[in-house]
Amino acid sequence: MKAAFYTKETVRHIGTQNYTFPEFGIGDTIIVSQSIKEGGKERLQDFEGDVIAVHKNGISSTFIVRKISAHSVAVERIFPFHSPLIKGIKVIAKGDVRRAKLYYIRKKVGKAAQVKKRIETKASLAQRAKADAKTAEKVESLTE
After folding, report:
1. Which of 26, 76, 108, 120 could cross-link with 112 by S-S, CB 3.0 to 4.6 Å?
2. What is the CATH number of domain 2-143?
3. CA distances to 6, 92, 137 from 96, in Å
4. How far apart are CA 144 and CA 142, in angstroms?
5. What is the mean pLDDT of the segment spanning 31-38?
6. What is the pLDDT of residues 41-85, one digit of tens each?
7. Phi/psi at 79 (5° precision)
8. What DSSP assignment string belongs to the chain?
């Protein structure tokens, strides 16, 4: 009866780590750096694409990234938020969308399959820098 000493909250957080990935949303273009082991070697592989869905489900939260690869072939990958294989996420551009899931893009071809990008101004960049500073302070307070 070891589980009798755990509450639901502690069970949800067992095996999780505090990841400090930047905040991103639906329609954003991101680069996900994932660790890949081939034989005896380990390397980082980048996957750049648009976020078309985010599933928030506690420890099993995932996000779907879609990119157009060679010869106009679309590739989608599902990444878990709490995977130890994900080494970093970098936000390239913010998307200007009005939907929570962008599954309709799967049926589009060519330029119609692109997500409209939000234009960054100096004010919005300053606001994002302030938000990043707040999250950095939160992370520091959690680690202490």
Report:
1. 108
2. 2.30.30
3. 43, 13, 28
4. 6
5. 94
6. 999 999 999 999 999 988 888 999 999 998 889 999 999 988 889
7. -115, 130
8. -GGGG--HHHHHHTT-----PPP--TT-EEEEEEEEEETTEEEEEEEEEEEEEEE--GGG-EEEEEEE-GGG-EEEEEEETT-TTEEEEEEEE-B----S--GGGGG--GGGGSPPBPPP-HHHHHHHHHHHHHHHHHHHHHH-
Task: Provide the β-strand partners of residue 66.
Answer: 50, 76
Q: Which of 24, 84, 81 is nearest to 51 (CA)?
A: 24
Q: Is-above-0.85 flag for pTM?
A: no
Q: Identify which of 23, 1, 28, 5 has the alpha carbon closest to the alpha carbon of residue 92.
A: 28
Q: What is the residue-averaged pLDDT of the chain?
A: 87
CA distance 66 to 69: 10
pLDDT score of 1: 45
Q: What is the rounded distance in angstroms from the CA atom of residue 45 to the CA atom of residue 32?
A: 8
Q: How far apart are the C-alpha atoms of 104 and 101, rounded to whole Å?
A: 8
Taking alpha carbons only, the member of 37, 47, 39 closest to residue 74 is 47
